[in-house]
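Our consortium's second objective concerns turning raw sequence data into structural hypotheses that experimental partners can test. To show how far this objective has progressed, the report includes one record in full. It was chosen at random from the queue rather than selected for favorable results. The single chain below, 231 residues long, was entered without modification.
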Amino acid sequence: MPRGRILIVDDDLTVAEILSRYLVRDGYEVESAPDGRVAWERTQADQPDLILLDLMLPGMSGLDFCRRVRRIAGIPIIMLTARGEENERVFGLKLGADDYIVKPFSPREVTARVGSVLRRANTPSVRPEQTEDRVIAGNELHIDLRSRTVRVGSDPIALTAREFDLLAFLALHPDQVFRRDELLERVWGYSVGDTATVTVHVRRLRSKIEGGPNSPAHIETVWGVGYRFRL
């Protein structure tokens, strides 16, 4: 059985072919799409396990495609970006992308990152014994670790898999301060990476569970250190 189905969305056929060859060699089933429109049709018809998404696409942009995917599914998305596209990377993370890789990149780096993201998507960041009948609730926030659902008051909150993992990890360690690099390792599984990913995910969580990123009631910033969760 393949390790997972990967959709590569890139108009550079050479890049798509090289990535496909390495991923197939690593045991994945791979499909490619040359633009956002074709990728959207294929995603609707049969959702992949992970999407490798170039941001600079003809027709529908990578960011527009990412926005559409996030409306229907929590499929892990890794963006492929040029080195100078920092604003696009941040915006993509805000839309719900799970990670990004800067061009030029090594195909081996991509396959390693794909494996890591899929493992994190399929493996909860909390241990099974922690989730059994475990509900964390207080101050209108209700987190059900077993069903992986979140409510604020009576309103259900839609979170991506990585957003939930980050919230669950912090909620299971209340009042503890974690550096961004610690969260990157504990929640994302990366010993090395860009901690801006953590910052953007925290901002997204705040906008969903706290009414806005500038008035945190649960995820507090400890200046110069990192973040702390409080009910």
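The partners drew two points from this record. The domain at 5-122 is CATH 3.40.50.2300 (Rossmann fold). The longest strand covers residues 5-9. Both points have been shared with the crystallography group to help prioritize constructs.
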